[in-house]
Every structure is written in C-alpha cells, then in structure tokens.
User: What shape does this take?
Amino acid sequence: MNILTLEHLYYSYDNGKTPVLKDINFEFEKGKTYAIVGKSGAGKTTLLSLISGLCKSSDGKVIYKGNDVSKIDREKYRSQDIGVVFQSFNLLPHLTALENVILSIDVSGIKMKDKKKHALEMLKKVELDEAKAKRRVLKLSGGEQQRVAIARALSYNPEVIIADEPTGNLDNATEEAVMKILKGLASEDGKCVIIVTHSPSVAQNVDVVYELQQE
Ligand code: ADP
Assistant: This one.
C-alpha cells in the first residue's frame, strides 16, 4: 500500500501565470528509496514543498495514508509525519548536534521519556558517536552536519523522510556514506525515503526514479 500518493498534482506561481507542475502522479511506498530528478527549474523544490506540506497545490492531491493532506492538520503532518532534510541543513550552528536533535523533538510536540537518550540513538544511527554529538555543529565537517540534519529529521520517528540534494555539497566518499545511511533507513527501518537530486550517481542508487519534465 502507498504511504504517499500524488494525484493529478498541479502547481503554479503568480496566480496561475507561472505553471510549474502539471498533472504529477507519483506513488511512494514504505521500505523503498525514491529519487525525484529533473533539470534546474523543473519544479523539484516546489514538489518538495508540496509533499512536505509547506504549501498547498493549485489542483490535485497529496494523499498521506489515505488522507488528503490539504484537509488534515498540516502543522501536525509537517512536525510529526514527514521528516525533511534541507539542502542548507537548517541547523543551529552554535548548538551541539545533540541539542539540535533534542530541539526538533521539542518542536514536534511528541512526548518522550528520555529525549536525550533517544537523540543520542538517532545520532548513533547516522554514525555520530557521543563525542561528536556533544560538539557544536559549526565544529563539524559538511558530511557530519548532513548526518546531523538526517538525525534531526528522524528525531520524531516519521515514516517518510524527504531530503533535498542530500549529497549536493559532499565529496564522493561522503556521498556514498550518506546514501548508505538513507538506504538503510528504507531497507532496515521501513521508512519511505525520497531524495530530490541532480546527481546521476544518487539516482542510480535508489529503487525508483521519478523525473520531472520542464514545462
Ligand atoms: P528546481 O528545484 O527543479 O530547480 P523550482 O521548484 O525551484 O525548480 O522552480 C521551478 C520553477 O518555478 C522555476 O522556473 C522557478 O523560476 C519558478 N519559481 C520558483 N519559486 C517561485 C516563486 N516564489 N515565484 C515565482 N516563480 C517561482
């Protein structure tokens, strides 16, 4: 069964004057990895905003677990059901990796007995040990910051993880390490992992590739 379905999805900017997405029909299942590819300007970032509930479609539906996302509590959907890994990481650089993950749990509103223990577990999952977890983000490498961003997206245990160019600023070896983590989230933890990417090597490394054609 699909966890997420895009049904006849349309999106235009400027009150319909700039059509970007036209009749998009994509399906996503748990336990699989997906790449959304397309040339610059094809609408990848726009689609990510629609899937993650940051904006509403002009027409058509984003369906999560059988429910039209425009009709459910989008605040809750964004903060509990979908984990977004932003291209720019969006981490607070002066806080530690651990504090960034704990903050995300707090923002989600999900109650946890031992937030610190859970946050450390999520950081361990992305191969950051306790010493790294307690380091300020600005003292971590790009690849490590990317992994903190993934741990943060995982912090409230969403079933869907969507990552915007997760390997965009990384060298090849680091890209491989990050892809291994993202693939493991699907194959071992049963998450639905969606990656928005330019990278052909990333697209070759997923279960399903969806291409956005430029209008
Ligand atoms: P991609 O991520 O694939 O590069 P985007 O989703 O960022 O594509 O953009 C798709 C198209 O929509 C581009 O032509 C872009 O110029 C346009 N666009 C993006 N954001 C806006 C906006 N806020 N207002 C008007 N047009 C926009």
In short: Residues 84 and 162 are 5 Å apart (CA to CA).
